[in-house]
Design brief:
There is one protein chain. The chain has about 725 residues and is of the alpha/beta class. The protein has 29 helices and 22 strands. Strands 6-7-5-8-9-4-12 form a 7-stranded parallel β-sheet, with helices on both faces. It has a 6-stranded parallel β-sheet with strand order 13-18-17-14-16-15, sandwiched between helices. A 3-stranded mixed β-sheet has the order 2-1-3, with helices on one face. It is elongated.
């Protein structure tokens, strides 16, 4: 064109139309501009002059009086055009200005507006975060891990709900965090939540429910439910752990960016790890046009060599300036004085179907033993042993099936742990202590640390005492040693103040053991704020322990010493423990419908347990757990009509059982309250005649018949003499 004079002249001619219009200019910074056509040209110039600047862009007065301006423009000529994208942009900017004006006095006073539904008072830096995100409308909260992005997101939601008419909120998070969000929301607010799960029809019903403010869905579920979500029309979408959309080429990232909402909040502790494209992808969800085209963005700020390899970046302060109104990031160093000295958080994770099957098999055994104790008022020593083994098997499988059989490794906790470690390792120099009661689980963690080449020290019961100091010194003094991995062998006697984060992969029964772990880093002389994260398997015995036992005082008094042994200190305390166990399983916290297909009947499950008891006992020493179960020689097993298994015991063991019975009976009779409970359990009053009868539970009618036959034989023998 430049080589041909006629075309070169035509190229310089501006494009003209007969009609006038208001449109969006996308080149460079987005602006609302006017184009005046040939029809009614002078009238439009006169009308639009007060509302435009020297470049023909809409000015401040135009934003404020857009309604009046458009009305007059259409009166001049109905052919005047106002394009939808331009009008939407104006509405968004006006609403943003209104929010800022409403929140301005609260920014100045550094406090929140009245939020009746919020049950917690955030820290000052969290108040700043809530106000920033609420004012922005669509924003990225990129605070360091441990600074409470969740509570800030909840605060933003409640503020927008009570002051900006937000009525529908969708939280999209990793699958393992769905119930964590539910727990946090119900803890900090008066609102209820709906977790989106199940088949398509069930999810459809859940989206249409109008009785809850919050809907919580996983990323994968959201990808499958794009149409349902857009039909649901959420006012606010919150993306947690938003690194899931950092790669703009993935299906998850592309699908999530198709979701529509007026407000949006992206939560991530690592907005930029390796590439500028990651940051660009996050900003795309907030505003697809904020950073311009990807090509221009990358070419402007990336430095490459002759082969196209990225060798550096330039102008990063310009990116920061562009993002200052939509991205907020604070580090722990910045808000150190505002932080509490210790923060405890429970992280709820789902378990696999394979884990659920094993967990619920043992749960049934525990339920039967609890029912037997309720009927009889006591348990035989063998039943007590089986009870403890079953409870521990349930706890072990919450971490991984590997702890039980070493041939499989069905688990979720390990994956969640390394998702968090990836963020912590990448964003700072913090050192971390990881505790697990089960040595075999620490092996799995150590193996993954080796794969990822993360330096660590590993302490368990097999490490001689004289070598432990070397581990301690390495962790405290070697900056490349970021992790201290330990069983409860390291729960006492070590000073690990170099660390400021502690992960409990499982919770011990005894709260004293838990505090011993925490006191390794949270002690006098610790200059950093400490974060404690407890991993809790959702809808399992761990969840029940957290919610119902609540580490009751009876446990800390010695019912379970150091997690496992020395529990049989007396029947009065054992009864307290049994009531706790009974309460643990009173409410169904797990779904068992899928289990029936995995086993033929309860009797076969009992046989599996019986076969595993001996090998389980042998493995405990390897796992730094002193179990109350002695090693036994194989015994012949028979089953009665109910499917229960009984041991055919030799005479010596029968005598021991009898001795145990009389010992337990003596303990009961020396306790007035226990004696009263025993009397009430074996007597019954006839309401018709007022007489009191003795009633003793028995296994079945045959037991009574055999007892009377034996007594008859004894009486005949005595009569003969």
């Amino acid at each position: 064109i430049q080589k041909r004079p006629s075309l070169r002249k035509a190229l310089k001619q501006p494009y003209t139309t007969t009609y006038s219009s208001m449109y969006m200019e996308y080149r460079g910074e987005r602006k609302i501009k006017f184009r005046i056509g040939t029809e009614n040209e002078n009238e439009y110039k006169k009308l639009l002059k007060p509302y435009s600047d020297r470049t023909g862009s809409l000015n401040e007065k135009g934003f404020e009086e857009i309604d009046v301006m458009l009305q007059n423009a259409f009166q001049i000529n109905p052919s005047f055009r106002c394009y939808e994208d331009a009008l939407s942009h104006i509405i968004q900017l006006r609403e943003k200005k209104q929010r800022k004006e409403f929140l301005k006095p609260y920014f100045e006073e550094k406090k929140l507006p009245e939020i009746k539904s919020l049950k917690v008072q955030p820290f000052p830096y969290q108040i700043e975060g809530i106000l920033f995100c609420a004012a922005a409308g669509r924003s990225i909260l990129a605070d360091d891990m441990g600074l409470g992005k969740t509570i800030q997101a909840i605060g933003v939601t409640q503020l927008l709900r009570e002051h900006r008419q937000v009525q529908k909120v969708l939280i999209i998070c990793p699958t393992s965090l769905k119930y964590q969000w539910q727990s946090e929301i119900e803890k900090f607010t008066t609102d209820k939540t709906t977790v989106i799960e199940g088949n398509y029809l069930n999810r459809q019903k859940l989206y249409r429910q109008e009785d809850t403010l919050y809907k919580i869905a996983s990323y994968n579920m959201a990808v499958n439910d794009l149409q349902l979500i857009n039909e649901y029309q959420p006012d606010l979408i919150i993306l947690d752990e938003a690194q899931r959309i950092k790669n703009w080429q993935t299906k998850v990232s592309q699908s999530i960016k198709k979701l529509q909402s007026k407000y949006a909040l992206v939560l991530t502790g690592t907005p930029l790890e390796n590439k500028l494209q990651e940051l660009y992808s996050l900003v795309q969800f907030i505003d697809p046009l904020h950073l311009g085209s990807l090509y221009n963005f990358i070419s402007e700020y990336e430095q490459t060599d002759e082969t196209g390899k990225v060798i550096g970046y330039k102008g990063l302060h310009e990116i920061k300036e562009k993002l200052k109104h939509i991205l907020l990031r604070r580090t722990k160093k910045e808000v150190l004085k505002q932080l509490p000295s210790r923060t405890d958080k429970n992280l709820f994770v789902d378990i696999t179907n394979e884990q659920k099957i094993i967990h619920n098999d043992y749960k049934e055994i525990v339920n039967r033993l609890v029912n037997r104790w309720k009927k009889m008022g006591f348990l035989k020593e063998e039943d007590r042993q089986r009870l403890m083994i079953s409870l521990n098997m349930m706890r072990m499988v919450c971490n991984s099936t590997y702890i039980i059989d070493q041939e499989t490794n069905h688990q979720t906790k390990l994956d969640e742990l390394f998702d968090i470690l990836e963020e912590v390792i990448a964003t700072g120099e913090e050192k971390i202590v990881i505790f697990s009661q089960w040595e075999r689980f620490t092996r799995l963690i150590a193996a993954q640390l080796d794969i990822q080449k993360i330096g660590y020290a590993n302490l368990n019961g097999t490490i001689p005492s004289h070598k432990r100091k070397d581990l301690f010194d390495r962790f405290n003094n070697d900056e490349n040693c970021r992790i201290f991995l330990s069983t409860d062998a390291g729960g006492v006697g070590l000073n690990l103040q170099a660390a400021s984060m502690l992960f409990n992969m499982d919770l011990p029964w005894n709260p004293a053991v838990l505090e011993q772990r925490i006191s390794r880093i949270y002690r006098q002389g610790q200059k950093r704020n400490v974060n404690i994260i407890n991993f809790v398997a959702q809808n399992t015995i761990e969840h029940g322990m957290l919610g119902k036992l609540k580490f009751k005082k009876a446990l800390s008094e010695g019912i379970l010493d150091n997690g496992e042994s020395n529990i049989f200190v007396g029947d009065s305390k054992f009864n307290v423990f049994m009531k706790d166990i009974e309460g643990l399983f009173t409410d169904e916290t797990v779904t068992t419908s899928h289990i029936d297909t995995a086993r033929e009947d309860a009797s076969s499950a009992e046989k599996v347990v019986a076969a595993k008891e001996k090998e389980t006992t042998e493995s405990y020493e390897d796992d730094d757990v002193k179990e109350a179960t002695p090693k036994k020689e194989p015994e012949q097993l028979v089953s009665d009509s109910s499917g229960e298994l009984f041991n055919i015991q030799p005479a010596q063991q029968l005598i021991q059982t009898a001795s145990s019975f009389f010992s337990q009976l003596g303990n009961v009779l020396t306790d007035a309250k226990a004696t009263e409970n025993l009397i009430q359990s074996i007597t019954k009053k006839d309401e018709t005649n007022g007489q009191t009868y003795l009633q003793i539970p028995v296994e079945n009618e045959a037991v009574v018949k055999n007892a009377f036959t034996l007594l008859a034989g004894l009486f005949k023998g005595m009569a003969g003499k």
